[in-house]
Amino acid sequence: MKTDSAQIFNVIVGTSGHIDHGKSSLVRKLTGIDPDRLPEEKERGMTIDLGFAPCFLKNGQKVGIIDVPGHERFVKNMVAGATSIDFVMLVVAADDGVMPQTREHLSIMKLLGVRRGMVVVTKVDMVDKDMVELVVEDVKDLVKGSFLEGTPICPISVVTGDGWEPFWEELNRQIAALPTKNVEGVFRMPIQRVFSAKGFGTIVTGVPISGRVAIGDTLEILPHERKGRIRGLQAYHNDVEEIKAGHSSAINIADVRPENVVRGNVVVTPGYFRPGTMVNARFKYLAESHGPLKDQMPVRLHVGTAEILGTVVLLDRKEYAPGDEGFVQIRLEELVVCAPGDAYVLRIQSPMITIGGGRVVSLGNEKLRRMRPEVTEALAEEEKSLPDPKAWVEFLVKQGLTEPITPQAIDVATALTRPHVDAALAALKAAGSVVVLPDGDRLLHRAGVDAAIEKLRQCLSRFHNENLLRVGPDKHGLRNVAGLDPQVFELGLEEGLKQKRVAEENGLYRLPERQMKLSSEVQKLAGRIEAILKETRFVTPRPDELQQQTSARQEDVNKVIRLLTEMGTLVKAAEDVYFHKDCVEEAKELVVKQIREHGEVVSAAFRDQIGTTRKYIIPLLEHFDAIGLTVRDGNRRVLKKA
């Protein structure tokens, strides 16, 4: 029988508190279901693992209740369930009062970002009224300064029914005031339990964090990237066509074997999430901690339903004093799947006590360097951008500066749906903050264009310092030393020229502000060489002959020839064949005139016309071919058509 999912109020209510304070009895009373399902739990009378049960409210709506274990040995199971909780019932037994796990559970709830709840004082039938009042006062002291300060405290007995009606009324009122979970976004569900059922195959259960899926959809189980199709769905033990964020759900998934799935894995819409071993996060060191927290402390990370060993690296200080807050990188021994904004808890490995937690900023596989302001500033900027999709997308595009990014990479980094990413990118493109590279897919932030221009300027500055008698590199040489993506290089060069932050001269590039200062000796040698090539016109001396005629060092002659060539004063027609630019221009005019009058120019005739030899006429005419003036046709040349 299909149940109408609209009857489900998609929030999760959870219990928390010390062992044997009546959490499971409270859930049984609320739901009629024993949340202790394991034989060992029934035998020992103690909750070991998570328990789930639907609770019908007075208005007919259904909410899920998660019962968590209270024993200190099973806090890891408690955290696995607490990550799904929207509203918590902190349970304190009247005959015990506030106990160690009462405090630890409250700390965990605060670290996980739970913001709504109430306190239930149980077992009031086992003590007198004065004792109940003392416990209530102790509870008020405990919750002072927390999200539970000022919330209702309801003394009850599930045995006698004392206080039950006021509690039930208050619980309904509190739940009715809760905002429902946002079901938009990419589907993601940390797996709380996996099992197989005869005739059905693998079934995974949990509470989706975001999104929705339907029968027939394909899902992926991470971190091991196993895909399967949804064969069936249940919400609160009833068959449904669709599940969504806030539903206590079961998914029957095909093509995945149960032995390949464990608690802590995450079932997701394919293509949006990538596992990592480095969690970059904001961290709050609990004020009640004893002593400082040292760098590289071995820890257990609890995020979603996963528990993974690792070390916590303090990025912004040498050690944390109790109550300190800042940025850390949690380096893990295994892959984890989480998303920016996820709440997490850290516990030290021995003794296993909770030391703090916070929110994930990003997930990756690259170690961050400690005590670097630029690292923590980037994390702070990303953290600030998380609530706003446009700001977040802009941060990710900007983060790589000269490294382009694709929309698909943004999908993975943000876990935002494609419509959200596309809308953010459209706004950023319209504002001119983001540009699309010519390949049509990759993106670059305007700051990345500026960084590319600055990179080119740095390369040119270094070239100028190392080559005093050079105008600058050509495009190929500049591209090689810049080391930029080819399309980013072209965009940076184009924008640099447009903004006059880079200058071009005869196919060479330089800084516009660069003033070449030549020594008097170099100026004198340059003038002498220029005069000789002007005078010899089309029968010019080789560089070694110029050395003999000027009596300068061959090295100096070569440098000056190259400089005059780069400046456009000389034209290199072939190896060791140079002409003065004025002579080349004269020959060019003669070629054009000859072709217009006779329809062609022939090398032998033109050689005689300008008074040179084959050694020089062939390179000169090939130069005109190279610059696009003429086209060779056998021994004749004609003007190249436009």
Write up this protein.
The chain has 19 helices and 32 strands. It is an alpha+beta fold and 642 residues long. The strands form 9 sheets. The protein has a 6-stranded mixed beta sheet, with helices on both faces. A hairpin with a 3-residue loop joins strand 10 and strand 11. Helix 15 (543-550) packs across helix 16 and helix 18 (603-610) packs across helix 19 (614-626). The model is unreliable at 1-6, 35-49 and 70-74 (pLDDT under 50).
Question: What does the secondary structure layout of this molecule look like, with pairings?
Answer:
Elements: E1 8-17, H1 23-31, H2 39-44, E2 51-56, E3 62-67, H3 75-82, E4 87-93, H4 100-111, E5 117-122, H5 129-143, E6 153-155, H6 164-176, E7 188-197, E8 201-206, E9 212-214, E10 218-222, E11 226-235, E12 238-240, E13 242-244, E14 249-253, E15 266-268, E16 276-285, E17 293-294, E18 297-303, E19 306-314, E20 319-320, E21 325-336, E22 343-348, E23 354-364, H7 373-385, H8 389-399, H9 407-414, H10 418-430, E24 434-436, E25 443-445, H11 446-466, H12 475-482, H13 486-498, E26 503-505, E27 508-510, H14 520-536, H15 543-550, H16 554-566, E28 570-574, E29 577-580, H17 581-598, E30 601-602, H18 603-610, H19 614-626, E31 630-633, E32 636-639
Parallel strand pairs: 1-3, 1-4, 4-5, 5-6
Antiparallel strand pairs: 2-3, 7-8, 7-15, 8-14, 9-13, 10-11, 10-15, 11-12, 11-14, 16-21, 16-23, 17-20, 18-19, 18-22, 19-21, 22-23, 24-25, 26-27, 28-29, 30-32, 31-32
Helix pairs in contact: 7-8, 8-10, 11-13, 14-16, 15-16, 18-19
